[in-house]
Structures are given as structure tokens and as C-alpha cells.
Design brief:
Layout (H helix, E strand, L loop, with lengths): L3 H6 L7 E4 L3 E5 L9 E5 L11 H21 L5 E5 L15 E6 L16 H20 L1
Antiparallel strand pairs: 1-2, 2-3, 3-5, 4-5
Helix pairs in contact: 2-3
The structure holds adenosine monophosphate.
Length: 142
């Protein structure tokens, strides 16, 4: 049974993409912990970090870095970024397709890890995705 992220990558389920290529993709988290919360995933479905080839992990982290820059460029209120990667159910991994969370932080946002994000309208996710995607394209073209 393919993971929910594989189904997104196969266009069976909707997502608000900021980037996709043959190795890695990134789209908005459906329940963002903060506005702009983005997930970076390898296209090849791998549940555990241990099974992810290092060269693909490098692509995931490089894209995570670019997305952090694009989020900061699109929203000056973002003054920090948290990365989160949950490897295994006991580490809080719910979707068995390894992914890097890129979580924008703003002064006084009050975020504490361990909670759930709130369900967000697709239009809001699409709006964020379009803004990040535009900055990302400019950056990656340089
Ligand atoms: P984790 O607990 O690290 O496995 O995180 C899974 C993340 O996937 C959660 O933050 C969910 O909100 C997010 N998620 C689940 N389903 C979807 C979906 N259909 N589209 C986007 N994000 C999703």
C-alpha cells in the first residue's frame, strides 16, 4: 500500500507543491504548525532514515535549506526555522515515508513541539505554496 505522500506524488491526492523533480519534492503540510510549514520528501518511498541513500538525504536537506531561505524571503516576519525529522513511530513518525519538516518561526509565535497543527483551507496552503515556489525558483536559477 503506497504511503499518503506517494499518492500525493502520483497526483492521486491534492497537495500544494513548492517544488518537485525526479528525486525530491516539497509541499505544504496539511495541518501546519505555523504558516508556511513545508514537508520535503524523497520521491522514492522509504520509511526509515536508515534506508535512505546518503545522496538522496543530501538532496532532501539541500532543498530544505533552499526552502528555508525562500520562506524568509517571502515573509520578513519569519525570524527562525526549525527542522524536524521523525524516524520511527516511537519518534513520532506518523507517515511511513521519510520527510523533513521545515517550520517557519516568528518571534512570540508560542509554538511548542508535541502538539498538532490546525486544519487549514486548501486556498491558504496554495497561497503559501505559490509564494514560496516563486522565491525558490528565483533562488535555484541563480
Ligand atoms: P510525521 O508525524 O513526522 O510523520 O508528520 C506527518 C505530517 O504529515 C503531519 O505534520 C501531517 O499534518 C502531514 N500530513 C498528513 N497528511 C498530509 C497530506 N495529505 N498533505 C500534506 N501533509 C500531510
Amino acid at each position: 500500500m503506497p504511503s499518503i505522500f506517494t499518492r500525493i506524488l502520483q497526483n492521486e491526492l491534492p497537495a500544494s507543491f513548492v517544488h518537485r523533480d525526479e528525486v525530491v519534492a516539497a509541499f505544504l503540510d496539511i495541518q501546519p504548525l505555523t504558516p508556511g510549514h513545508t514537508l520535503v520528501v524523497p520521491v522514492r518511498e522509504v520509511a526509515s532514515l536508515s534506508d535512505l541513500p546518503p545522496e538522496i538525504l543530501a538532496r532532501v536537506t539541500a532543498l530544505g535549506q533552499e526552502i528555508g531561505l525562500a520562506i524568509r524571503a517571502t515573509d520578513p516576519s519569519v525570524t527562525g526555522i526549525n527542522w524536524l525529522l521523525c524516524d520511527g513511530p516511537d519518534a513520532g513518525q506518523e507517515v511511513p515515508h521519510i520527510h523533513l519538516h521545515v517550520i517557519p518561526r516568528r518571534k512570540g509565535d508560542g509554538l511548542r513541539f508535541g502538539g498538532k497543527g490546525s486544519k487549514t483551507e486548501r486556498a491558504d496552503l496554495d497561497d503559501w505554496a505559490a509564494r514560496i515556489e516563486t522565491c525558490l525558483k528565483d533562488q535555484m536559477a541563480k
